[in-house]
Structures are given as structure tokens and as C-alpha cells.
Specification:
The chain has 4 helices and 5 strands. The chain is of the alpha+beta class. The longest helix is centred in the C-terminal third of the chain and has 14 residues, at about 85-95. β1 and β2 form a beta hairpin.
Length: about 120
């Protein structure tokens, strides 16, 4: 590795398997170029960079961003369920089961104990 090169990691996972590949690229290489250089798309042909979001150390970034030495580039799969909708369904279930107060959202028994 020369002074003009940097070492990065590229990460991607499915429910069945995951990959964390190390790649050495020239400084000034974009996130997209680093992903392609890593060879991860050969392992996971379903990766479509036009659709999937990417990030560096769990922070969203653009494919044109420039990573720094030691960065981990992550390729994110789409969410299966909307997190807000899933939370709302869990809260409704807790109310129906008597584990939460409909008005405050808090635990029904905790409100009784304070009186």
C-alpha cells in the first residue's frame, strides 16, 4: 500500500449471509468506485446501487462522497416494515391486552399504584 492508497471496508448483509470485505483504493476514490472495486456485487448480484442506500459508519452518504482511510462503507437493504407503523401496532396490542393505558400510553398498573 502506498501513501496515495487507503484501506476501507465494504459491508452488506442479507438474513442468510453477510460480507465484510477489505479493499485498498486510491485516495479520491468515490464510495461507488470503492464498492465496485471490493467485488461485493459479484457475491451479491441482487445489489442495485441505483435503488439501495449507502452509508459510512451508519451515516447515510452519497455514492459520490469520498471515504477516508479506515472507513466502513455499508450498503443498506430496504426496510421490510415501516418502523412507525410497527410501533403503533405494538402499542395498540398492549392497550388491548391491558398492558398500557389508552390515554397516557403508560402502563395501566403503574397509574393505579401511584394513587
Amino acid at each position: 500500500m502506498t501513501d496515495q492508497q487507503i484501506s476501507l471496508e465494504v459491508a452488506y448483509a442479507t438474513p442468510e449471509k453477510q460480507a465484510l470485505l477489505e479493499v485498498v483504493v486510491e485516495q479520491g476514490t468515490t464510495v461507488q468506485q470503492a464498492i465496485l472495486a471490493s467485488g461485493i456485487i459479484k457475491r451479491f448480484p441482487d445489489i442495485n446501487l441505483d435503488v439501495l442506500k449507502v452509508g459510512i459508519w451508519n451515516r447515510a452518504c452519497k455514492l459520490s462522497d469520498l471515504p477516508k482511510k479506515g472507513d466502513r462503507i455499508e450498503i443498506y437493504r430496504p426496510l421490510i416494515a415501516d418502523p412507525k407503523e410497527a410501533r403503533r401496532r405494538r402499542a395498540e396490542k398492549a392497550v388491548d391486552e391491558g398492558r398500557a393505558n389508552k390515554v397516557t400510553g403508560g402502563r395501566a398498573k403503574a397509574a393505579v399504584n401511584k394513587e
